[in-house]
């Protein structure tokens, strides 16, 4: 008996009922995916805010060493640079379209409107951090490298961050 002979015996009422169930399941899945996506975007905003806070804390450590408020410690200097390297690695992944608003973000629309400029800025930051990691040997090289990396931070925040009023 060919496979299609039994197809004629399907009750149309049952088929409609099954189709209705299928659509209901698909709608529930779509809603779940949308909710999960919205949640993940909030998580992304929170992750980038936490990353920026960690970079800021690393900057305070760097500043204290550079001003002589705390003794220069090469291991701590390397930790500062490692925190910034983590920031540089993660940054390009933390600005999907869904994260333009929400969670008190201060990310400026320019991040998405001028995406190539933003990518170039994050790439320059990453390259300068890598160069700093490779060349920091003492307080003088640390100061010079922090100045270079710090310019990246300032430039990026000027162009790609909304100032709170």
Helix fraction, binned, reads over 70%
Q: Name the assembly state.
A: single chain
CATH hierarchy class name of the domain at 46-92 and 99-160: Mainly Alpha
Largest sheet: none
Query: What is the number of strand segments?
Result: 0
Give, in order, the helices and strands. HHHHH
CATH homology superfamily of the domain at 46-92 and 99-160: Cytochrome c/b562
Strand content range: under 5%
Uncertain runs: 33-38
Structural class: mainly alpha
User: What is Rg?
Assistant: 26 Å
**Rough shape?**
elongated
List the helices and strands and how they pair.
Elements lengths: L11 H56 L6 H17 L19 H4 L1 H21 L3 H22 L5
Protein described:
- This protein is mostly helical.
- The chain has a domain at 46-92 and 99-160: Four Helix Bundle (Hemerythrin (Met), subunit A) (Up-down Bundle).
- Helices cover 73% and strands 0% of the residues.
- The chain has helices at 12-67, 74-90, 110-113, 115-135, 139-160.
- Helix 2 (74-90) packs antiparallel against helix 4.
- The N and C termini lie far apart (77 Å).
- Mean pLDDT is 84; it is low at 33-38.
Give the gist of this structure.
The chain is mostly helical and 165 residues long. It contains five helices and no strands. Helix content is 73%, strand content 0%.
Q: What distinguishing features does this structure have?
A:
mainly alpha; 165 residues; elongated; Four Helix Bundle (Hemerythrin (Met), subunit A); single chain; 5 helices
